[in-house]
Amino acid sequence: MMSIDASHQRQPLDDSICIQRPDIFSRGALDLTFRLLRKNNPSLALEVRNILAGETVPLEDAAHYSPQGDHFFITMPAQRIGCVVKALTQLGQDALDDGRSDTGKLVVLRTLIKEWMTLAEWIILTAEEESPPLH
Predict the structure, then answer these.
(1) How many Å apart are CA 100 and CA 42, to the nearest integer?
(2) What whole-number distance in Å separates Cα of residue 1 and Cα of residue 19?
(3) Which whole-number Å values give the CA distances from 65 to 30, 38, 41, 57, in the listed order?
(4) Which of 20, 31, 43, 66 falls between 20 and 30 A from 132, CA-CA?
(5) What is the pLDDT along the chain (135 residues), one digit of tens a residue?
(6) Taking the CB of residue 3, how many other CB atoms lie within 10 A of it?
(7) Sign of the CA dihedral with 95 first, then 87, 22, and 49 last
(8) Which positions ≥6 away from 54 have C-beta within 8 Å?
(9) Neighbours of 126 (CB within 10 A)
């Protein structure tokens, strides 16, 4: 299984870089992911929740610090990230099939799915760049 080891990257980061990196999620995104997954996917939700118990990404601008603004490196294996995308997608499909779906919930699901998919794509691209040529 592939995982991202970001421990060597734990120096202070510029806030703008932090927001642009696909392997860094906000506390809010992780908390929403946890809440959405915990009913139908408790073990997956717990993995997401455990990230919140980890070390936050050190930011340059500590003057704007608030716990809600914390960011975390995502170090889950790629396969588990795929499971998060699948579970969130299923929740979105269920909400659409229900017909009484809350538009706000759909917007949140769409945003989270995009964030997790961007992370999955980034992992694939990173792995391809690090792989030696086949010939």
Answers:
(1) 25
(2) 26
(3) 18, 28, 32, 12
(4) 20
(5) 333 444 334 444 555 555 578 999 999 999 999 999 999 999 999 999 999 999 888 866 654 555 557 899 998 998 999 999 999 999 999 988 988 778 888 999 999 999 999 999 999 888 877 766 665
(6) 14
(7) positive
(8) 72, 73
(9) 15
Amino acid found at 40: N
Q: Helices 78-98 & 27-37, crossing angle to 10 degrees?
A: 60
pTM: 0.77
| 36, two tokens | 């959405």
Q: How far apart are CA 134 and CA 22, in angstroms?
A: 27
